[in-house]
Amino acid sequence: MHPARRRALVLAVNLGSFITILDISIVNVALPTMQAALRIDMAGLQWVVDAYALFLSAFMLSAGPLGDRYGRKRSWLAGVLLFTAGSALCGLADNLTALLIGRAVQGVAGALLVPGALSLLTQAFPDPKERAQAIGIWASCNAISLIVGPMLGGVLVAHFNWQSIFLINLPVGALAIALGAWSITESAHPEHAAFDPAGQALSVLWLGALTYGLIAAGEHGWAAPQATVALAVAAIGLLAFLWVEHRAARPILPLGLFRDAGFAITNFASFVLGFSAYSSLFFFSLYMQHVQGLSPLAAGWQLAPQFAAAGLVSVVFGRLNLRFGLPRLMIAGFALIGAAMLGMTSFEAHTPYFVSGSLLVLLGLGTGLAVPSTSMAVMATVPRERSGMASATMNALRQTGMTIGIALLGALMSGRAIDALTASLAGAGASDAQALARDAITRHLMPAQPANAATLAADALAGGFHAAMLAAGIASMLAALLLLVLARGSRRVLRAA
C-alpha cells in the first residue's frame, strides 16, 4: 500500500473511532442539562448512556464477523454512515424516546466501527512493530476524543444546547467516509465468519433485560417486580445464549477461544475495564454538577486532566511495551485504576481540586496503560484471519462491562443516597421522607423543607458516589490481582504482541 493511502487509512479509522468514543465522554457532561430539559429522572439518564452501550456491546459480536464475511471496508463505511445518521436523530430529538432511538442507532453503528478499526489496522500493518505503532496511535486518538469530549461538551452546552453535542459528529463522519472510501483496501475471510441469528437475538435479550433490571432496582428497589422479573429473564436468556453458542456451527461468541488462558484473561480484564473506568464518567459528571454544583463547562475542564494523562501514556505506550512488556503494563494499569477509585471514596462537596484532580490523573494513567495493553494482548492470541471476531469479542465485553457498571453501580449509588437522605429528612421532621428523597436524588427536585434540603441531598449523593467508587475500585484491584497470578502461564503469548 502506498504510504499516502496508508496515512489516509489511519486517519479515516481514527476519525471513525473519534466520534464513537466522543459520544461517551461528551454525553456524560451534558446529562444534568438533559435531565432538566427533558424532565427525566436518574433512570432516564442511565438509559441515555446505556442505550448506546447496550446496542454497541450486543451487536459488536455480530459486527466483527460481518466484516469477515462481507468485507471489512464495506462494513466499516456502513458503520460511519449509520453513526452519522444516528447522530442526526439525536440532534433532532425533543423527548427521551426519540433520543433513545437515536442512541440505539449510534450503538449499532459503533458496533461496526470499534472492532472494525482494530481489524483494519491489523490487516494493513502485518509487521508487529508497525502494528503496535498504529494501534498506539489509535489508542491515543481514543484518549484524545475522551479529552476533547468533556471540554467540547461543556462549551457546546454552555453556548448552544445539548443537541449540539450530537450534531458536531456530522462533518467528522462525512470526512471519515471520504477518506475511508479512497484509502481502505477491501479484505474478507468468509470462511471464518459467524452466522448466528439466534445467538444475536438472545444477546440483545439477556443484556437488555439485565440492564433494565439493574436500573429498575435502583429506581424501585431490588424486591420490586420490575427488577426481579427482568433479572430472571436476563438469567434465563444468558443460559440460553450460552447453550446456543455452544451448539452453533459458527457462533458469534466463540466459546472455544476462551480455552486459551491468554484470551480468557485479557478479555476478563477488558470487561472489568469497562465496568470500572469507562462507567466512571457517568458518576463523575453527576458528582461534579449535583454535589459540587459546577456548571457543565467547569465540569468538562476539571475532567480534562484525566484524559490528558491517558493520552500521554498512549503516545509513549509502544516504548513502554518494549521495555516492560504487556503483562506488567496491564497489571500496573488496573492497579492504578483501582487505587484512584478507592481514593475517590473520600470525595465530598468541598474536596479541593488538587486532591480530586490528582486522583483523576492517576485514573487516566491507569486507563492509558490498560486500554492498549488489553487490546494488543487479545489480538496477539488469535490468527490474523480471526482478527475481526477477536476484536469484536474484546470490545463487546468491554462495552458490556460499561453497560452493567452504569446500571449496577448506578443502582448502588441511588439506593445508598435515597436511604441516607430519607433518614436525614425524617430526622428533620419531613413527612413522606422517602418519596421526597427519591425525587431529590433521581429527579434533582428538592423539597421546600427543610431549608438545608439541597445540602442534605448533596451529602447523600456523595455517599452514594462513595459506594459506587468503592465497588469499582475493588473490581479493578481484583482484576490486577488475578492478572498477576494468572498471567504467568500466558506470559509468552502476551509478549508476542
UniProtKB/TrEMBL annotation:
State the compartments where it is located: Cell membrane
Q: Which UniProt keywords apply?
A: Cell membrane, Membrane, Transmembrane, Transmembrane helix, Transport
Per the record, the major location class is: membrane
User: What GO cellular component is one of the record's annotations?
Assistant: plasma membrane
Which CDD domains does the UniProt record give?
Answer: MFS_MMR_MDR_like
- What family is this protein classified in? Belongs to the major facilitator superfamily. EmrB family.
Q: What is this protein called?
A: Multidrug resistance protein Stp
Tell me the name of the encoding gene.
stp_3
